[in-house]
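Posting here for the record, re: zinc ion.
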Amino acid sequence: MLYNYELIKVEPKLNKKKVFFTILIVLIILALSIYGALEFAKQQHQKQLAIEQEKQAQIEEQQRQEEERLKEEAKQAEKEARIAMHTNPFTEEQMQAIENIYQAQETKRVFLTFDDGPTQAVTPYILDLLKQEKIKATFFVLGNRAKANPELIQREFEEGHYIANHGYSHKYSQIYQNNQTVLDEYNYTEQCIQEALQNPNYHSKVFRFPGGSQGGYYHSIKKVAKDFLRQNGIVSLDWNSLSKDAEGVNTKEALLQNVIDTIGQKQSVVILMHDAADKILTYETLPDVIQYLRNNGYEFKNLYDIL
Ligand SMILES: [Zn+2]
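Prediction output follows.
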């Protein structure tokens, strides 16, 4: 019997398929590996980036804290210097610096001064605005108002404004009886400021005569009292510009115009304004006054800057 053995041929088709699938699997594995590797690298990179960002944020935070600390230290030092200035009597030079305040300087300068406060109705708004504008002013406070609003006196001092003395009663007939009554009003007001600041060593050493140090019915008494105060180490300061906010002017435009007119061509200006309870219009005009002064090249100063 003849057996016809046929050779079992390996189907080439099957081989091709195998090869194809093998290659496909290899390719898939390869692709997955590459993808995985790339993903891993990406994740590592992101992790690294996040670490670096965190480090950077930490550095920035440390810098911010350091700046904050230095700022606070400078503020504290500045405050201590002011406290020391108020503890000691004025030197002759310091008194003259105030007395010569209107003398022209190399640069134009302006002193904003507010009388008759502090009051809840107006002073906080003025303080907010001055803070926003980074301007330090001088407040000639009344003893009776200081007594009623100690927290506003504290705020004025904390925010770098100069607290000066405008007497206690603002009643001319009471203050201007003689030398001694002027000094008494000054002293009593100093005491009110001291109590408000809880600092018995605070001496403003600057007085503004209610109604100004010159002219009017009490001119001769004021003239003598001015010298008497100076002998006691107290300098008096008037103004050379005013908005006339205490003279019934009742529009912002007119108040501003009065300031502009009374400044004229002056190089060193002391502006009289008021923060009494009925002077909200003074506050409302203040941004325009500040704008005018900035536009005309004036630098804002307060008394500390010249002492
Ligand atoms: Zn006044």
